[in-house]
Amino acid sequence: MKSDVSRAAYYKWLSRKPSNREVENEAILRDIHLLYQQVDDIYGYRRIALTIKRQRKEKNQAVVNEKRIYRLMQVSGLKSVIRRKRKPYRKSPARHVAEHVLNRAFASEKPNEK
């Protein structure tokens, strides 16, 4: 299958210098991966966006949009782990109640007596 890209254009593309946007995306992605590992894959893009915004404000860097973080996480395949909620325990009424035969007299004189 032949592509429509010329050989010269392909080799020019190989030796190109990455744009400022690509360099910035790589830096943001490193921060995302680091945070994602620290929280054991629990945070989704919203919490990661909040944390990264807070970190970048402290370092006096430009604030990153939530959609950009969402897009970068999708590209790198990062997803939050969804924990299932437990169903609440409901106490059920006793259907069969055994007779109180022992009357708390648990001691016996010989084996198999009670």
Strand content: under 5%
- Alpha-beta content class: mainly alpha
Task: Report low-confidence residues grouped into runs of 5 or more.
Answer: none
Helix content: 40-55%
Task: Describe this structure as you would to a colleague.
With 114 residues, this protein is an all-alpha fold. It has four helices and no strands. It has helices at residues 7-14, 20-38, 45-58, 66-76. α2 crosses α4. The longest helix has 19 residues, at 20-38.
Strand-helix topology:
Blueprint: H1 7-14, H2 20-38, H3 45-58, H4 66-76
Helix pairs in contact: 2-4, 3-4
In summary, what is this structure?
This protein has 4 helices and no strands. It has 114 residues and is mainly alpha-helical. α2 (20-38) crosses α4 and α3 packs across α4.
Task: Give descriptors for this structure.
single chain, elongated, 114 residues
